[in-house]
Structure formats: C-alpha cells, structure tokens
C-alpha cells in the first residue's frame, strides 16, 4: 500500500479510526452490560495478558513502520538534505506579510519542490491547501538567526503527484494582526498560489 | 420537600457537621465546577463563531480576531488550571489522608492552594478580557513579549495570574509530600527510604524481579497504597511542569517589565526553537505525565473501591507507574514534528518511539482496571461505575488519536488541525478525565458530605448520558473537521467548515446543558445555605477522615 497524496491518506485514516472508535465504544458497552449480569458470562475471546501487551507493542511500533513505507514524504523529509529538488523557492515573513514570495508557482506533475521559508520576527507556519480546504502539507516557520546573523531555514521538500490549485495559509497563530481587525479576514492567506499540471486524472505522470 | 425548601436547605446536608478537611475539599470542588461552567461557555462561544456568519447568531464582536483569540488564550487556563487542577488537587488532598489514614499536613496550606489557583485563574481571565492579551497557552516565543500586538500591562497581569496558579500548585505538592512522609499512624515505624522506594513504585519492580528469580517478595505489604503511589509519581511531573511554566513566565515578565519601563530588550536573544523545546518539555508533563499517571491511579483506586478486591497484577501496575515517569520525560518532541529545525533523531526517538510507549502504559492501565472489575462481577451499575466506564471509553478513544498523529508522516497533514485538539485533547479531558473525576466524586460524595442524599438520581443519569454523547460527539465532529483541513488556531469567517462546526456546537451545547443539570442537582442536594456554609470556618478542625475504604465496596455488591 502506498499513498500518493494527503487526500488518500486522510480518507484511509478517517475510515480506519472510525471503525476503531465504534469498536472500542462497543467493547466497553458490552463489558459494562456483562458486568451486571448475574449468570456467568462466557468471554467471546480470551485475551492473554502477554498477547495483549504484544499487540500494543506491535501497534505502537508497527504504525510507524507502516507509515514509513506507505507515506512517501517521510523518508524524503528525513533525507531531504541529500536530495536535489527540481525547483526551489525561498521567501520570508515579516510583520505578518510574505516577503519575496513568487506571485504564482506552476509545478509539473511528479516534480519535487523545495520550499524554504524564514521568519524575521514571530513563529508562523507554511501550509498548502486544496480549494475544498483540505491540507496538502504544512510546516512550522520559526524565527532566529545563526551566528553569522543569517535567518535560520525552515525547509521542506514536496513531490506533487496530483493536479490541483493550492492556497497558502500560515498554519501557526502569530497574533490577531494576521487578520483584518473588523472582518476577521485572514491577511496572510494567498489564494491559488500554486498550480500542479500534467498529471493523470487519478494521479501520476501522464 | 418543596422545591424552595430543597433549594435553600438541600436534602439532608449539614455544613456544620463537616470537619476542616471535608470543607477545604468541597471549597475547591465548588470553584472547580464554577470554572468548568465558564470554560464550557467559552468553548461554546468559539464553536458558534466557527460555524461561520451564515449560522452564527452571536454579536459581531465575538468574531473580531482580538476578542476571539483572547477567549482562546484563557480557555485552557480556566479549563486546565481553574477547573481540572482544582478538582484533582482537592480530590488528592482528601484521598491521601483518607488512604494513608493520616491527617493532611496543613489545612491552611490547602486553603491557600484553592485561593491562589482561583485568584490566579481570575487574573489571567481578566488580562484577556480587559486587555485582550492573547498569545495563546503555547506562549510561542516571542509572541508573549510582542508589545506591538499586545498591551504590556495585560501581559504582566496574565503572567502574574499564571504565576499564582503555579505557586498554588507548589503548595499542593508540598502538602501532598509532607503528608506522605509524615511518620505518624501506620507509617510511624517506616523510614523515609521505605516511603520513597514505595512512592516511586520501585518495590513493585523489585517484587517482579524477585518473582522472576525465584526469591521471596521484596515487600509483601508495600508502604504506600497503589493510588498513593500514582499520586506520588504524578506529582513529580506536576512539580517539574510548575517549574518550567514559572520559568517561562519569569522570562516573559522580565521582557514586559523592561518594555513597560521604556527599555525594550532584544527578543531575538532567545532562540525560538530552543524555547519551544523547553516549554513543550514542561507543558507536555501535564498531558503525558501527570494526567495519564493520575488517571491510571484513579482508575486503580476506583476499581478497588467499587469491587472491594485487590487490584489485578498490582506489582505490574506499580512498576508501570515508574515506567510512565521515565516515558513522560522523553516524549515532548512529538509536539515538534512539524519543526524542520528539530533534529530528525529527536523526532524519531522522542517524538515517535518513546511516545508510542504511552499506548503500552495506558493500555496496561485500561487492561488492569477492566480485569479487576470483571473478576468481581456481578456488580451494580452505580453512577460511579458508569462514569468509570465512560472515562475508560474517553481514553480508549483519545490516546490512539494522539499516537496516530505522533508520527512524522501523519503529522505533516494533521499538525495544528482540529484533529489533535478535538479528537484527542477534548475527548481526553471532557470524556476521559472528567468522567473519571465524576466517578471519584460519586464515590467520595457520601464520605466528604457525611452521607448527604443526592437530590435526584434521574438528573444524575441525564447528566451522564448528555455529557457522554455530547463530549464524544463534539470531539468526533471537530476531529472530522481536522481531517478536512480545519486549523485549530485559526479564525474562519467564510462558513468554510459550517456543517461540521454546527454539529460540534450542538454536541458542545449538550455538554453545557449537562453541566447545568449537574450543578442544579448538587445545589438542590446541599442547598444554598449549605453552599455558603462550606465557605464558613469549620468547627471541627480535624484534618483526616476515618472511614475504611472497604466500607465503600460493600455498597456496590449485587
């Protein structure tokens, strides 16, 4: 199993967690009902203690092994300093305003892009969102400089496998000045900033 | 009895019959539930704003960013410190004397604790309400010292408020440890070393080791009962957390005072990422340290009180509490998985692997509690048992929701969304923690109030079901919004997530109504006279309570 974008991953997660949630509620409800019954209840399944502990260990560790193999951006993120991107965009944020940010970016399907966002003052975020509001990806944008006074990088590599038009939002709260005082409009939102083209309808290069 | 008579006099409550320990416990409980009401109203305001202008019936000012985020800033302060800390501290300052059969070290100090936390919470709330100081509870550097966005005076008042809460917390810690280490009563002949070994759960580990190596048990009768061990252990994290929050508060205060004096300091002198690591290490001790440990201890206590039997696998439970201590110190990096400057090895080891251990420790606590109950069946489905099961459901839902996000792959698409705050935090607190606390409240109610009859069991049941369904529903719909991309610290004013937020608001209003029903039931039980009497000085200065825990179990047998 391999997810090609966050939409697929989040749909899978929605179904898997919903099933789990219904299961745990049902198990405790069944348990509560049987606690009060006078006649001896036979357990549906006997769970040996060490089997249960083993299950928890496998679930805790296996979850990460599964995501490492099924989610492409994990290994890419860890080894990003050794990967040469197809294109790189560097810009910064100051006083809740994007500085030197390209007006619009077009990405060809399958390209790996490096975004490096720096902050001159506060903690912000950088996130790409689909037109339906769902998240493509995000990272935190921390302020700070190195010993030479150069702004610390906050970089991420991302490979785009599906066509789409994406908005940019700061995903971290940086105070009320990020919004219009009266209307509440998000002043840091950049609409339709990035467009991905050249993918098949169900994702992947044509 | 007529409605008015009940309202004034209660059922059979007599405040004059309460001793000093009972009164100080009830004072903190009353304040805790008043703050719970405030936090529920704040939560509802935010939920209604999030439904968007098409649905939102509230005046426009609530959608103004400065107003909205000041509510968001005090919401967790009031909820976690004003309400939860007060309730937990009150319960533990009663339970430690009750379980160790020793007097509380100082009733005066216990009174100072609830007063300091109440005043501190009120000050933090006032800072947000009057000056709209809104750096959120995360206090990400340098936002709390950003005087271009916030008033320095507001910030100073806020930080003083939080500092008072932490001083109150240190008072609680001192009182608990001073009580545990008092060498009177059953601990008259115990040494400090024996009490320390038992407090840290080391005797449980040694017992397990001795069993494995075929030796006789290290300790047949541990010096401290298991719930006291959990309180002892969790309080270590409470202390560390208080020190970290106080430290961060002093830093912010220094910057604000210099700014107010016309000599602003350079905020860039503090590294934002390093500060985040320091702050999350401490703050995470609340979520992944004391809450999980206190809750595990409360489950064990409730299971043994309800069943009247020994806890299943008690030595394993004792040892697990020690493991939980070490785990809770090493998991903070799961909050920093979206910070690209954070070393990858820290993300992997602290953020993912050690955090996954919480599935093990909490799963173990769930298992031990369920088996202890199961072995004692048939049991009466009392209110305390119902709430305990509700608490187990809450953590059964909330812990995996967080473990899922504590993963580098999932975090990239879930960080700072409504998923973590609703499907994890709110379900863990509202359903998991509070239902456990309600269970404790129903168990302790006759002891703390000298057998006061609850006004209506029907109302208790209505409260239970509305609270359970509302709490889970609000968390579920909020979590779904998170999966749809809704951010947690963001203002939406274009009806973006209107449907899910409307459903979450309906469920949230069930929680609020449930609180009203609960409060009504309590007021009708103790009466307004009784309520006032709780706050009057106690005639009986006794600082302990003598009922044996075994007596409680008798009431639960079928």
Describe the protein:
- The complex is a heterodimer of chains A (206) and B (558).
- With 206 residues, chain A is of the alpha+beta class.
- Chain A folds into 2 domains: 6-70; 84-197, Immunoglobulin-like (Sandwich), CATH 2.60.40.420.
- Chain A is 29% helix and 27% strand.
- The model of chain A has no long low-confidence stretch (mean pLDDT 94).
- By secondary structure, chain B is mainly α.
- Chain B has one domain (3-554): Up-down Bundle (Cytochrome C Oxidase, Chain A).
- Chain B is globular, with a radius of gyration of 23 Å.
- The two termini of chain B are 31 Å apart.
- The chains are: A alpha+beta (206), B mainly alpha (558).
- At the A-B interface, helix 1, helix 2, helix 3, strand 5 and strand 6 of A face helix 3, helix 9, helix 11, helix 12 and helix 13 of B.
SSE inventory with pairings:
The complex is a heterodimer of chains A (206) and B (558).
Chain A: H1 6-35, H2 49-70, H3 72-78, E1 87-94, E2 97-99, E3 105-108, E4 112-119, E5 124-129, E6 135-141, E7 155-159, E8 164-169, E9 190-197
Parallel strand pairs in A: 1-4, 3-9
Antiparallel strand pairs in A: 1-2, 4-7, 5-6, 5-8, 8-9
Helix pairs in contact in A: 2-3
Chain B: H1 3-9, H2 20-50, H3 65-100, H4 107-131, H5 152-180, H6 192-199, H7 202-212, H8 226-260, H9 272-307, H10 314-328, H11 344-375, H12 383-405, H13 408-414, H14 418-448, H15 457-483, H16 498-534, H17 549-554
């Amino acid at each position: 199993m391999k997810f090609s974008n966050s939409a697929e991953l989040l749909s899978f997660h929605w179904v898997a967690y919903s099933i789990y949630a219904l299961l745990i509620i049902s198990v405790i409800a069944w348990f509560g009902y049987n606690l009060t019954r006078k006649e001896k209840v036979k357990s549906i399944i006997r769970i040996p203690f060490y089997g249960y502990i083993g299950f928890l260990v496998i679930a805790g560790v296996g979850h990460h092994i599964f995501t490492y193999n099924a989610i492409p951006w994990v290994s890419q993120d860890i080894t990003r300093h050794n990967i040469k991107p197809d294109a790189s965009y560097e810009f910064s944020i100051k006083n809740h305003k994007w500085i030197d940010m390209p007006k619009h970016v077009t990405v060809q399907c399958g390209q790996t892009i490096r975004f490096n966002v720096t902050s001159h003052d506060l903690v912000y975020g950088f996130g790409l969102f689909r037109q339906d509001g769902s998240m493509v990806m995000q990272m935190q944008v921390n302020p700070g400089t190195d010993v030479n006074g150069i702004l610390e990088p906050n970089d991420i590599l991302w490979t785009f496998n599906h066509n789409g038009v994406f908005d940019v939002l700061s995903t971290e709260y940086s105070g009320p000045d990020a919004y219009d005082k009266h209307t509440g409009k998000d002043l840091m939102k950049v609409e339709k900033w990035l467009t991905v083209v050249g993918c098949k309808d169900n994702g992947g290069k044509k | 009895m007529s409605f008015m008579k009940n309202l004034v006099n209660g059922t059979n409550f007599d405040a004059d019959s309460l001793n000093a320990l009972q009164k100080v416990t009830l004072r903190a409980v009353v304040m805790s539930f008043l703050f719970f009401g405030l936090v529920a109203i704040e939560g509802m305001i935010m939920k209604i704003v999030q439904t968007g202008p098409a649905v939102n019936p509230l005046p426009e000012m609530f959608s103004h960013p400065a107003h909205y985020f000041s509510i968001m800033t005090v919401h967790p302060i009031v909820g976690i410190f004003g309400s939860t800390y007060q309730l937990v501290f009150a319960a533990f300052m009663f339970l430690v004397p009750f379980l160790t059969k020793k007097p509380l070290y100082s009733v005066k100090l216990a009174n100072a604790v609830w007063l300091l936390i109440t005043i501190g919470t009120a000050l933090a709330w006032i800072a947000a309400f009057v000056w709209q100081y809104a750096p959120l509870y995360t206090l990400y550097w340098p936002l709390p010292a950003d005087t271009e966005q916030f008033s320095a005076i507001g910030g100073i008042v806020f930080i003083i408020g939080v500092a008072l809460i932490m001083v109150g917390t240190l008072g609680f810690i001192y009182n608990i440890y001073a009580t545990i280490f008092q060498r009177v009563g059953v601990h008259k002949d115990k040494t400090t070393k024996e009490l320390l070994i038992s407090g840290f759960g080391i005797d449980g580990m040694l017992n397990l080791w001795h069993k494995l190596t075929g030796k006789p048990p290290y300790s047949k009768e541990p010096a401290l009962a298991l719930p006291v061990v959990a309180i002892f252990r969790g309080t270590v994290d409470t202390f560390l957390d208080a020190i970290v929050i106080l430290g961060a508060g002093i830093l912010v205060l220094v910057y604000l005072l210099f700014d107010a004096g016309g000599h602003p300091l350079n905020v860039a002198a503090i590294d934002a990422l390093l500060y985040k690591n320091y702050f999350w290490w401490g703050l995470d001790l609340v979520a992944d340290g004391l809450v999980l440990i206190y809750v595990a201890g409360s489950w064990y206590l409730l299971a043994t009180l309800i069943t009247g039997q020994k806890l299943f696998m008690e030595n394993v439970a004792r040892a697990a509490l020690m493991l939980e201590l070490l785990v809770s110190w090493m998991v903070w990096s799961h909050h920093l998985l979206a910070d690209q400057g954070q070393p990858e090895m820290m993300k992997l080891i602290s953020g993912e692997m050690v955090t996954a251990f919480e599935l093990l420790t909490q799963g173990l606590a769930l298992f031990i509690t369920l088996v202890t109950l199961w072995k004692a069946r048939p049991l009466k489905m009392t209110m305390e048992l119902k709430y305990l099961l509700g608490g187990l459901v809450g953590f059964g839902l909330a812990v995996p929701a967080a473990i899922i996000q504590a993963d580098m792959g999932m975090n990239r698409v879930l960080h700072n969304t409504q998923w973590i705050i609703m499907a994890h935090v709110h379900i863990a607190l509202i359903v998991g923690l509070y239902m456990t606390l309600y269970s404790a409240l129903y168990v302790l109610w006759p002891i703390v109030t000298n057998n006061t009859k609850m006004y209506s069991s029907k109302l208790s049941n209505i409260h239970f079901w509305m609270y359970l369904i509302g709490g889970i529903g609000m968390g579920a719909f909020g979590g779904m919004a998170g999966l749809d991309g809704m951010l947690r610290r963001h203002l939406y004013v274009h009806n973006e997530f209107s449907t899910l937020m409307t459903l979450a608001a309906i469920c949230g209003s069930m929680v609020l109504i449930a609180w009203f029903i609960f409060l009504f039931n309590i007021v009708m039980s103790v009466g307004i006279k009784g309520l006032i009497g709780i706050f009057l000085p106690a005639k009986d200065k006794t600082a302990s309570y003598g009922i044996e825990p075994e007596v409680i179990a008798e009431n639960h047998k079928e």
